[in-house]
Amino acid sequence: xxxxxxxxxxxxxxxxxxxxxxxxxxxxxxxxxxxxxxxxxxxxxxxxxxxxxxxxxxxxxxxxxxxxxxxxxxxxxxxxxxxxxxxxxxxxxxxxxxxxxxxxxxxxxxxxxxxxxxxxxxxxxxxxxxxxxxxxxxxxxxxxxxxxxxxxxxxxxxxxxxxxxxxxxxxxxxxxxxxxxxxxxxxxxxxxxxxxxxxxxxxxxxxxxxxxxxxxxxxxxxxxxxxxxxxxxxxxxxxxxxxxxxxxxxxxxxxxxxxxxxxxxxxxxxxxxxxxxxxxxxxxxxxxxxxxxxxxxxxxxxxxxxxxxxxxxxxxxxxxxxxxxxxx
Length: 328
Ligand code: NDP
Prior knowledge:
One of its GO terms (molecular function) is oxidoreductase activity, acting on the CH-CH group of donors, NAD or NADP as acceptor. With 328 residues, the protein is α/β, with parallel strands linked by helices. Helices cover 25% and strands 27% of the residues.
C-alpha cells in the first residue's frame, strides 16, 4: 500500500517536499484486528503542530513517521467481533490507502444517515469542537452577539449556525467574498466580514454593539481587532490560532489587554478531546441537519497522491467548509 510520511520539519510554510510517499506492505490482520481500505482522509490544521519539534497539545511526529489522520474507511477483512467486510468505519489512522488496525479503535459510520465523509467534518471531530466549544465554553444566551473567525471553515461554519439557532446575532469573519456570501445567504449569519479586503475593527463596530462571545479559530490581527470590542463579561473561546501556525517567531499577543479589566471578560481555551463522549453533539447537529436548520459544505480534493496539496491549501484558505481527500 502507499502511505504518506513526514519527510522533513517545515520551516515556516510547509511545502510538498516535507512529505514523502512510500510503499509499505500491509500484514494480514491478527486476532481482534481489521484490514481497512481508505475512502476519505482528513487534513486538519492541528497537524501543522505535530510537524514541529515543540511542545503542543498533540504529540509531535518524528521525521520519517507516517502522517496520522482521521479517516473514513471500508472494512475489507475483519477478525473483530462487531465489524464485518463492507462496514464503513471512522478512526484515527494514516494517510494510507490500506491499514491494519485494532477493531476496538474504530467507530462504525451509518451510511444511511449522511454521506460518510461527514464523519470527518460536521458529524466528526470539527463538529464536536464547534458544539462543545461554543455551548460549554462560550455559553451564549439568546440575544448575545457571537463573533466567529475562520467562519467559513469546518469548525467556524458550524459554530455560527449553532449560535444563530440559539437566538444570537452572529458575525462571521472569513477570507473571501465567496465565503462571506455563503455565510449570510446560505447559513443565516447576520453579518460577514471579508478580512482580506475590509477593516475588521471598523466593520464590526458598524455592524454590532459589542461582542459577547468571540470564538477564535485564527488569532493574529483579527483577534486583536475583536478584543477591542468585547462587552462586559464577554467570553473568548480560544479554539485555534491558524494565522500563527507557520510563524517562525513567537508573535506579540493581543494589545489592549487592559480592556479585560474593564470588561472582566474571560479568555479560555478549548480542547475537543476533553469531551470523551461526542454523542450529544452528533445527535443535536444531526437533528438540525435533518430539519434543514444547519447546512454544511465540503471541499473535496480527488486522489490519494494529492493529500499534501489539500493540507497546504488550508493555510491559503482554499477550502470552504470541511476539506477532505477522496481516495480512489
Ligand atoms: P478550517 O476548515 O477553518 O480551515 C482553515 C481555514 O483557516 C482556511 O480555510 C482559512 O480560511 C483560514 N486561515 C488560514 N490562514 C489564515 C490566516 N493567516 N488568518 C486568518 N484565517 C486563516 O479548519 P478547521 O475548521 O478544521 O479548524 C479551525 C481552527 O480550529 C484551527 O485553528 C484548528 O487548529 C482549530 N481546531 C481546534 C480544535 C481544538 O480542540 N481546540 C479541534 C479542531 C480544530 P480564510 O479563507 O477565511 O482565511
